[in-house]
Each structure stands twice: as C-alpha cells, then as structure tokens.
Amino acid sequence: MQLGPVAQALEAALVASCPGDAPLGLAVSGGGDSMALLCAAAERSGPPVLAVTVDHGLRPEARDEARFVADTCARLGVAHTTLCWQGWDGSGNLQDAARRARYRLIADWAAGQGIAHVALGHNRDDQAETLLMRLARGAGVDGLSAMAPARQSLGVTWLRPFLGLGRADLRAFLDERGQRWIEDPSNEDTRFGRVQARRALDVLAPLGITAEGLAAAAARMASARAALDVATREAATRLACEDRGDVVIDRAGLAALSDEIARRLLFAALAWVATAEYPPRAEALADTMAALITAPRATLHGCLIARHGDRLRLSREPAAVAGKTAPAGAAWDGRWRMDGPAVPGDEIRALGEAGLGLCPEWRASGLPRASLIASPSVWRGGALIAAPLAGFGNGWQARVTTSLRARIVSH
C-alpha cells in the first residue's frame, strides 16, 4: 500500500520513537487515537507488536469494546490480551484510580511478556488539554511541560510517538483504511476536567490559542525542565550522598542553592526514599523545612528528615513501612532486594523495634536507630533470619535497586 502523507507521518513518528527490534507493547482502548497506533504499528515493517486492552468494568459497553479491539487485532495479525480491573470501591477520584490501575496492570502484563517499551496513543490535542488542566491547577515548569515523549515508570518505558500529530490526523488515517473506532461517551461528559479543557480550546481558538501553539509551549517548558534537571543533578553530585537507602545532604550547601534547585533536590530525595511516583506539595515541603529550623526532625511524604550536625538525613519513616511485606525473592518497598539463602516462606519485612533488639551489633553500622528500624530484614515466621544493615547478615545482603541520580529526570 502506498502511504499517504498522514500515514507517512505516523510511520516516521513510530520509527523515531520506537527504534530497534525489541517487542513493542501497544495500549489499545478502541478509541481513535489508540486504534491509529495499532494500525500504524501493524503496518510498519519493524519489531513485533503485542496489544493490550484494559476493561475497567465501569461501563456495560466495556466488554464489547475489548472484544472489538481483539477482533481487529486478529484481523491485523497482532497478538492481543484483555486485562480486567475490579478494584474500584466507589471512593476517591474514579478517573485517577482507573488510570493508576490501568498503568499497573499493563506494566505487569509487559513484564510477563518480556516487553520493556509500551506505546500510548496520546497526541498533540491531549498535550494541549493537559497543559490547560495543569495551568488551571497553578502548575509550575514541571506541570506545564505536560507529557514527555518517553518516561520510565513501574519498570516500563512508556512511549508517546504521536505527540506531534493532531487528533484529526489520526482519524483521517483510520478513515483512509476504512477502520472504525469507538467513541467513549465520557469524552462528552463535562464533569471531567479533560472534557472541559477540550471545550475551552474551542473557545480560545479565535484568540490564536490553539492545540498546536499550546503543544509547542509545552515543548519549550520541557526544555526548560531538562535544564533544571541538569542543574539539580549537579547539585546532588556535590551535596548529597546515598547511605544504605538514606540520603544525606550538606545543609550549608543546600541553603546556598537557589530556591528552585534546592526544592528539586529535596523533592527527588523524598520521592526516591519513599519510592513515590510524585513528590509532596511545595507548600508541605516549605512548612517542613521551616519547622526543621528549630525542630531536630520532621516527617513528610513517608520519610523522616532529621538534622545531624551540618547535614540533613532523609530516611524512610518507620511507620510508613511497618506493615509492608514481600516474598524473599521480590522487591520490598519498591527498591530493596535481599540476596541470600532463602527457603520457601521467607518474608521481607521492616526490621522494627523488636527486630532491632535482636541485633546487638547494630550501633557498629553507623546508621541511626530510626533508619535501621525501617530497614529490610528477612523473617521465617516469627524468627529473624537476617538484618544486613543492622550487623546481622547471616549470609544475606541488602541492596537498593535504584539511584537518587536516576530519580532526577524529566518524566
């Protein structure tokens, strides 16, 4: 098939965003954006593609929509999987809960398939709408840089190859192929912020504020954000060090930084220690740092921040991990791995006060008591098997699988 201009643009976007021969995952809902992604990827003579659809179980039509995607994939020769979510309890923000669940389910699916990259159908119009929504919330540089072409989360690199293309372009591509798509009725529900932003774009267009212009503004903000990340990494190299899962920061050096870089360094350290997807609110961080002028320690975002002479130590808050458990071969608290002579049933838990009492050599570690209480340890039923950070290795080692420096990246 000879490719038209839109098809060529889609293929070029896929080649640029998804190079190489490794299998590529596609998140396909059945809407116009993701169906264009599916068809373009299936036509491309590149890496094998596998598609996945998440049925959130929130609308009676969802099952038929997943079946529609599966039938289309079968016709295109693309392997397809439907994942079901049943985690909605009726409380909180439904759209946010569904989004988080969708990413978790897809990430688990990708890991099981040996897929490191998953492509999403977000386009230029989505970028503009996201910028408007974040502008309404008073976002700064990070928020206004909107969506990145690639970001890492949950062990997956999420790709957005079509951010330079408009929604109308993707639908024109589908029309050329006679491929239908499904319109989600929630796209017309004005209770949702994204729908409100979409309507606002129609109103703003006569003023020259278009999706193209807003997407270009987001790209410029992303460039500014990348420059700030470079400055933050440089500050982290000079002033911060990782100490067995904690972050230790030079207080005088931190105070000498510009407010923006100091805030970014602290945000990154807190998010890394807490294995959090997002940092705390700027106001909460400012209040905490003000309290630390006189108080010896404070808690924020699941972390304990303590003054130790001329340094700040950020460690995991013991209460935040008191109930966390994981099998001995799995990650604990999102970033710890325990290597040692495991037997079936061994479990990783926070050491806790009781466990620390079973480690008479813990003071020789040089770590504060609070850090050790929140550190990973191996238990066999009610018996402590190992607590490497507290001086009780017993053939085991504890290692952190991520780094602070890696956390200071645009996403």
Automatic annotation (TrEMBL):
<comment type="function">
    <text>Ligates lysine onto the cytidine present at position 34 of the AUA codon-specific tRNA(Ile) that contains the anticodon CAU, in an ATP-dependent manner. Cytidine is converted to lysidine, thus changing the amino acid specificity of the tRNA from methionine to isoleucine.</text>
</comment>
<dbReference type="GO" id="GO:0005524">
    <property type="term" value="F:ATP binding"/>
</dbReference>
<dbReference type="Pfam" id="PF01171">
    <property type="entry name" value="ATP_bind_3"/>
</dbReference>
<comment type="similarity">
    <text>Belongs to the tRNA(Ile)-lysidine synthase family.</text>
</comment>
<protein>
    <recommendedName>
        <fullName>tRNA(Ile)-lysidine synthase</fullName>
        <ecNumber>6.3.4.19</ecNumber>
    </recommendedName>
</protein>
<dbReference type="InterPro" id="IPR011063">
    <property type="entry name" value="TilS/TtcA_N"/>
</dbReference>
<keyword id="KW-0436">Ligase</keyword>
<dbReference type="GO" id="GO:0006400">
    <property type="term" value="P:tRNA modification"/>
</dbReference>
<dbReference type="InterPro" id="IPR012795">
    <property type="entry name" value="tRNA_Ile_lys_synt_N"/>
</dbReference>
<dbReference type="InterPro" id="IPR012094">
    <property type="entry name" value="tRNA_Ile_lys_synt"/>
</dbReference>
<dbReference type="GO" id="GO:0005737">
    <property type="term" value="C:cytoplasm"/>
</dbReference>
<feature type="binding site">
    <location>
        <begin position="29"/>
        <end position="34"/>
    </location>
    <ligand>
        <name>ATP</name>
    </ligand>
</feature>
<feature type="domain" description="tRNA(Ile)-lysidine/2-thiocytidine synthase N-terminal">
    <location>
        <begin position="26"/>
        <end position="199"/>
    </location>
</feature>
<keyword id="KW-0547">Nucleotide-binding</keyword>
<dbReference type="GO" id="GO:0032267">
    <property type="term" value="F:tRNA(Ile)-lysidine synthase activity"/>
</dbReference>
<dbReference type="InterPro" id="IPR014729">
    <property type="entry name" value="Rossmann-like_a/b/a_fold"/>
</dbReference>
<keyword id="KW-0963">Cytoplasm</keyword>
<keyword id="KW-0819">tRNA processing</keyword>
<keyword id="KW-0067">ATP-binding</keyword>
